[in-house]
Amino acid sequence: MSDLLKILFCLICVATPAVAADIDFVRDVRPLLQRHCTECHGQKAQKSGLRLDVRAEVFRGGDNYGPAIVAGMPEQSPLIELITSDDDSQRMPPESQPLSEAEVAVLTDWVRQGAHWPDGADFGVVEDLSQHWSFRPPDRPEVPIVQHSQWAKTSIDHFILASLNEQQISPSPEADPATWLRRVSLDLIGLPPDPSDVADFLRRVRDADPQAVEAAFSEVVDRLLTSEPLRRTLGSALAGCRSLRGYPWI
């Protein structure tokens, strides 16, 4: 009788299929994703728009596929398809050793068992772009009260002067007309002003009323912005940008 029981026991063991052990995400899966995937699909880089370090992003998917994982169906999960591909140009991770059979088995069994990703197990952070400064309505800050306020001509000057005051730095004196003309010319076209332009500018602002002086300054800037040297400089810059890959619209 004992021999018969032994035979029956052996037959039952042979006939019963092996059941994969329960896969724990934190213990078994997360280390594999960190080791093999997050360099290209993590917080710093998201190739093809895919992240594999945040649960919501994994099940949302990237640009080329739907969800990277279909819970319970590894055969329909792009992640499993890509790590097991026989095509070297498609298999992930690229330019690296493929995952071992044991590692593939862990990920496959995890997906087959429902791809449970517990709360709080993300190992990356998704930035809330809605809080980026470019999406916020601009606020007009209060103009600071500063020392030497007579130096400031605009509200922006008050902020500059406030920073100088904090560092106990005195503002530079206002440039004389000849110095200003040289600076603005070098800044805009990269060339010093012509001597005849200097003489004409000094003649216009000498003993002129403040409104006429302001008009003379504005005319200099307008003339330089439409000058041939500046057009050549901008044209060269645009041509250089257009030749760069990724900027065909310029």
SSE arrangement:
Layout: H1 2-15, H2 25-36, H3 38-41, H4 55-60, H5 78-83, H6 101-112, H7 155-166, H8 177-189, H9 195-205, H10 210-225, H11 228-243
Write a brief structural summary:
This protein has helices at residues 2-15, 25-36, 38-41, 55-60, 78-83, 101-112, 155-166, 177-189, 195-205, 210-225, 228-243.
List descriptors:
250 residues, 49% helix, mainly alpha
Quickly count the helices.
Answer: 11
**Overall pLDDT level:** 85
Helix amount, in percent? 40-55%
Biggest β-sheet, characterized?
none
What would you say this structure looks like, in words?
The protein is an all-alpha fold and 250 residues long. Helix content is 49%, strand content 0%. It has eleven helices and no strands. The longest helix has 16 residues, at 210-225. The protein is elongated, with a radius of gyration of 35 Å.
